[in-house]
């Protein structure tokens, strides 16, 4: 073929590279943003479970222990940007569930939360997809502490 019959393709590789990078980088940036959002929530529920357990064991009596634990969990979740609800915190203890602040008991705090995926358009529906995260923290009350 003669030189005059060929199309001049100078610069088309640059255009293809730009389009390819846009097509690959936009989904990659979204995935990274979604992973960071879920990880932030995971750290939040972990910190909330630990703070709730600590607040529960330091309470003067069992009547206020649950309220303090839920308040501490709500503060920790809010600090991490996770929407907080009191029903997300579940507190149990063993061996006697009726006397959690007894020497030798172990308090278990479970915090559940759900995180909305970021930048979801309204075109996909009114319900935003969520990812559930939870954390469990066990805290021994201590054998040599006083019974409250």
UniProtKB/TrEMBL annotation:
Residue ranges of the TM segments: 12-36
Keywords: Membrane, Transmembrane, Transmembrane helix
Name of the protein this chain belongs to: Flp pilus assembly protein TadG
């Amino acid at each position: 073929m003669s030189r005059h019959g060929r199309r001049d393709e100078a610069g088309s590789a640059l255009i293809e590279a730009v389009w390819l990078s846009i097509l690959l980088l936009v989904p990659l940036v979204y995935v990274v943003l979604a992973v960071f959002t879920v990880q932030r929530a995971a750290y939040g529920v972990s910190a909330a479970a630990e703070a709730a357990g600590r607040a529960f064991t330091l309470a003067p009596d069992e009547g206020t222990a649950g309220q303090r634990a839920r308040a501490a969990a709500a503060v920790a979740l809010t600090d991490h940007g996770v929407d907080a609800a009191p029903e997300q915190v579940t507190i149990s203890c063993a061996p006697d569930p009726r006397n959690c602040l007894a020497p030798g008991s172990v308090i278990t705090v479970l915090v559940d939360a759900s995180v909305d995926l970021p930048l979801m358009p309204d075109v996909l529906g009114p319900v935003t997809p969520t990812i559930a995260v939870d954390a469990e923290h066990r805290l021994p009350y201590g054998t040599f502490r006083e019974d409250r």
